[in-house]
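Hi team,

As requested, here is the filled-out complex form for the fe (ii) ion run. I kept the field names the same as last time so the parser does not choke. Let me know if anything looks off before we queue the next batch.

— J.
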Amino acid sequence: MLAPSREVRAGAVLTLRLMDEDIVVYRTRSGRLNVVRPYCPHLGTHLGCGGWVDGESIVCPFHRFAFDVDGAVARVGPGYTGQPVRDKLVVLPSDEVNGGIYVWVGADADEAPHWRIPPVLEAPGLKFARIRLGTHPQEITENGVDLRHQQALHAFAEAECIGEPVLDRYRYSYTMHLTRATPFGKVLAEGTISFYGLGFYHLVFRVPQYRLQHDMAVGIRALAPWESEMLVGTRVTMDAARAPLSRLPRAATDALSETASRLGLFSAKRLLSQDVPIWHGKRYINPPRIARGDGRSGHFASGPSSSIRLSEPLSSCVCAD
Ligand code: FES
Ligand SMILES: [Fe+2]
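And here is what came back:
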């Protein structure tokens, strides 16, 4: 994930880092988003350094060639005629989905995406926070399947896996029960987490006691070796059809949901801040040394370091017990 969609407005040209390289993201005047390698095919000018959007094109500041969204020259600069360059600007496959901008980087420029992130939630109302991490996306993803640390590090009273995980090519999904002890008694949340490759995961928490649902969309960007950015979008929805919320006017339940979404983002950031120092210092152990008790049958603790390693077969699970 490169950025939340709403951060790239029509006419904007942004340079973002991805895997130790620059990538240029722009939005045309009609609202179409495009992601390109930064270098102009004429003499290599970086389009993020002074390039601009003109209608449906991006213009190179050096000799003012304009490129269309397919990367072809749409218009030459002053003093040029005909088709003066053969090469195109390199366009990367991108999608806007779940409130974010996602880009595919294949092994070579012509490699088409093997899969795409499906829309799993509606974007309006999602609040995003950015978190910089001194780690690799693999570690972040494996954290999401490490149930024992939910108790030890995040202080949940219980953390258990429910049912069987789903392994479906690029998607890995499972359901968990997390229990938190509060001064008002135990609160149970049922969470389903689905990972889509190493760049996106969707977490849905339902808290039946409070009749609310907390959605988290997490995009991960590898910036450089052992440097990543996490974009966390959250939304809390409340069941307004049931009492006591059903007695409130619509504007009041909307305002309550808005406040709950902000609280949801705050609590997600607080939980993640507990993982940050662990990620920052830890080294990656491969294969994982799974301890007895690391998950119900070893699938969900450190085990998925092999089962969700996406360059490897998804179906190979580690069983420790
Ligand atoms: S370098 Fe871009 S138009 Fe010449
Ligand atoms: Fe964690």
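Two things worth flagging: The pocket of fe (ii) ion (ligand 2) is lined by residues 143, 149, 154, 275 (CB under 6 Å). Residues 127-307 form a domain with the Naphthalene 1,2-dioxygenase Alpha Subunit; Chain A, domain 1 fold (CATH 3.90.380.10).

Thanks,
J.
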